[in-house]
C-alpha cells in the first residue's frame, strides 16, 4: 500500500491542515516520507461524531460478530506482510526480530480478546430472582450486566509501535468491550500507524460495522490529544507514555463538566530485591540476568529493572562488580526517537551531577545517532531516602543499586518507594521468612510481584496485571495488559422487574448465551460447559 499521509476518519481518508509530522529513522537520522499533516479540533469533532453514531449499534453486536471482527483485524495486520515490518523497523530503530515478535503479540492479543468476548464471562451476569412472598417486603427481579462506557480515546505508545499502538492492547480491549475507538497516533511512527489503521478500517468494512467504530488521527498531543480527551462524547482514555503527558491528560479529563477515567500507564522503576541467601549463592548469575534484562531493547520497557536493593557487604559488592563489568561490555543501542534519546541523556547527566549516587559503570559508546549507552549507579539507603531525584524514571538502560545496612533499612526503602508496575524478589529457601515479612508492603507498592525471574517480558493472559499504584498508573485498580484490561471500559447496569422480552439477551430468563451467571447467590454450573 502507498502511504498517503492522511488520517482516517471512519472510512474516509482526510488530509490534515496543521503542522506536518515526519517520522525520523532514529538509526540514521533520515527523515522518512510522506509528511503527515496534523489534524485539529475540527477533525476530532468529525471522528467523535462518527464514534458516537456507531456506538449504540456496535455495543449491541453479538459476541460472535465482535469476536470475528477482532480476528479479522489480526488477519488484516498479518496480510500487510513485510511492508509493515519494514516501516516499523525504520520508524522505531528496533531490530527486525523484535518487530516481527511484536506483530505476533499484537495479533495474539486481538485473538485472545476474541476468545474472551465469545466466552462472555466479562458480562458478569448476576441474577436475583423476584421473591414475591418474602416478608416483611417482597424482592423485585434484579438483573445486572456490564455495558461498554462509550467511545474511547487511545494514545499510541512510542515504545510498542504495534502492540501498544493503533491496534494494541488499549484498542483491542476497548473494541472487545464494545466501545468505538478514536486513536491519536504517536508522532514517532505515523507510517506504521497508517498501515495498521487501514487494516482496522478494512476489518470494519468486512464485518459490516458502522464506519465510526474506528478513526485514526495524527497531530500534536496538545491540540488533537487535548481536544479528544475534552470531547463530551469520549467516555474513557487509554494512554502509555511519560508521567508529564499522562498527568496533563488526567487534568484535562478531570476538568471536564463530566469527568472521565484516564487509564494512563506512566512511570515505574521496577525494583529488584536481592535476598541474602540468593545473593550469596548465585550473585554472578543474578548479575548476568539483571544486566540482560536492563539492556534489553535499550531499556525502553515500562518494566525495565531500574532499581536494585540489597544488603551491603561482600556478596552485594561482588554482584555490583560483575554487573558493572557486563554493563561496560554492553553495546550501545538505538533509541526510539531523538527526543527519547535526549531525555535519557539528560536523566543520566542529572544522576552524574548528584553527590548522592556514584557511577559504577557505563556501557560502550554509540557510533551512530541516538544510541543509548547503558549506565549503572550505586547509592546508600540513607541517600536514597533523602533524595527523591534518585527514584525518578530514567527511560532507557540505566539502573541504581541501593545498599542497605539491614532489614530495617530495606523496609524503609520499600516504604519510601512510589507505586510500581513490578517488584522482583530474587530469593532462595533460606530467604522465605524475610520475603514473607515484606509481602504486605510489596503488595501495597506494585501490581505484579515476581520471584526469581526478571520483569521485562509481559505475558498477555488472563492472570496478568500490568498496572500498579501511582505513578505506575493513574488508576491502581486495573491492568492494561491481559484480558482483565476489558474491565476498564465497562460499567454495570441493573435491570429491575423488566419483562423478559425487553431484557438484553445476556439477561433473559432462558440464558440463551449459556453464561455462567451468579444466580440467587450461587455461581451456576452449566451442563456441557
Ligand atoms: P509522551 O511524551 O508522554 O507522549 C505520548 C503521547 O502523549 C503523544 O501522543 C504525545 O503527543 C501526547 N502528549 C504528551 N504530552 C502531552 C500533553 N502535555 N498534552 C497532551 N498530549 C500530550 O511519551 P513518549 O513520546 O513516548 O516519550 C517521552 C518520554 O516518555 C520518554 O522519554 C519516557 O521518559 C517516557 N515513556 C515512558 C514509558 C513507560 O512505559 N514508562 C513509555 C514510553 C515513554 P505528541 O505527539 O504531541 O508528542
TrEMBL record:
Keywords: Oxidoreductase. Gene3D superfamilies: Aldehyde Dehydrogenase, Chain A, domain 1, Aldehyde Dehydrogenase, Chain A, domain 2. InterPro entries: Ald_DH/histidinol_DH, Ald_DH_C, Ald_DH_N, Aldehyde_DH_dom, Aldehyde_DH_Superfamily, ALDH_KGSADH. Residues 17-459 form the Aldehyde dehydrogenase domain. SUPFAM superfamilies: ALDH-like (SSF53720). Pfam families: Aldedh. This is Aldehyde dehydrogenase (NADP(+)). It comes from Pseudomonas bubulae.
